[in-house]
Amino acid sequence: MRILIVSQFFHPEMGAPAARFGDLGRAFVQAGDDVTLLTTFPNFPQGRIYPDARQRLTQSETIDGIHVIRTPILALGGHTAARKAMLYATFAASVLLRGLPLRHKPDIVIGTTPPPTVGYTSWLLAKRFGVPHVLDVRDIWPEAVVAAGRVKAGPAIHALEQLNQVVLADSAAVTTVSEGKKIRLEQLGARPGTVHVLSNGADLARYDREAAETHDHARAWLTQQGVPQDKKLVVYAGVFNPPQGLDLVLDIARVRQAQGDDRLHFCLVGDGSLRQHLVDRVQAEHLLHVSVLGPVDRQLVPGIYAAAWATLVILRPRKDNHTVPSKIYESMASRRPVILSADGEVAMIARAADCGSVSAAGDPVGLQAGLESLLADDREADAKGERGRRYVELHNDRAAIAQRFRQVLLDAVAQGRAP
């Protein structure tokens, strides 16, 4: 199969969007497929081109067997709605200009969203080549950002929603990451029987290899960053944006410090719009048991988790209950107990796995109680970590997810439904 993927996020960027089709694309290549991925120059999450990257009209490279084509965008930095809109719109325009004249016709086109502009672009490319289109939906925009209060509903949002309905209904298949999102996508216009739940997950073989290879490097790096090695580390690795609600972690650390409890050290690793805010809070409040560290290469994260006592997965309260942060799966893969502060489907997964503690989003009392429960019984904490690992092995190994995803693609190609 010749597969064309459109993704605004890709290696070396951090987070689930870049990882999803890095892992899936590599699995498709290993299965014998020819995979081309259209993306842009690395800029996520700050919206600025990375210092070691230089934009060109086009750049081609091969990563894990994937033919990667990068196109330029207008990356001004900052997190205002206007600047993000320009970021998304210029990517859609540049990738369309680069994709339309591609010489090798694909058998199928995949667009992974958000932002929804990627889906419009991939849909148009599928129409240009006369091949089936698959829309991959990790979060439902613009609905989710309106519900979060990040933008206001209006004519532009209504127009996007109308266009989303067209793309959903005209796609040979729609893939998404949770059962709740499947139900909602069918309500929004996806044809019955075309929506498939293909969750995020962890590439366990790669994860274990990287954990072993980076174990010593990760510990050395943490020491260099001033992270104490004589405390129980609670590690969060990911994006520092408003939906994560990381201020709650600092609130917990402040309370524990006031109580004289120094058993834990909270280690936040990543980047995002709230990074400087978190750093400022740590300094202003003299939080001795919190480290806010910059982003690291994705390959180092398994080693950092290996140095942890527990991992942290957190979301602030949301109106939807079907968001499942992808970091839950790598957290469980680490064999460390997971401290989850979130509602909805992700909480159901954590309870089913019995992999740590679960508290409601934004609930400091519940989060504290979960920490104390794990601290009270080291043996049970370790057992919960092992149960989490077992759950991922059974349900969320990305190798198995990739096989199911590939079958969706094969079925769409066989049916020959083109937009």
Give a verbal description of the structure:
The protein is α/β, with parallel strands linked by helices and 419 residues long. The chain has two domains: 2-201 and 397-415, Rossmann fold, CATH 3.40.50.2000; 204-395, 3-Layer(aba) Sandwich (Rossmann fold). The protein is 46% helix and 18% strand. The chain is built from 15 helices and 14 strands. Helix 11 (327-333) links the parallel strand 12 (310-314) and strand 13 (338-341). The model has no long low-confidence stretch (mean pLDDT 93).
CATH superfamily of the largest domain: Glycogen Phosphorylase B
How is the biggest beta sheet arranged?
Answer: 8 strands, mixed
For the largest beta sheet, what order do the strands appear in spatially? 3-4-2-1-5-6-7-8
- CATH topology of the largest domain: the name is Rossmann fold
Structural class: alpha/beta
Gap between N and C termini, in Å? 18 Å
**Overall pLDDT metric:** 93
The total number of structural domains is: 2
What is the count of helical runs? 15
What are the low-pLDDT stretches, counting only 5+ consecutive residues below 50? none
Q: Which percent bin holds the helix content?
A: 40-55%
- CATH C-level of the largest domain: Alpha Beta
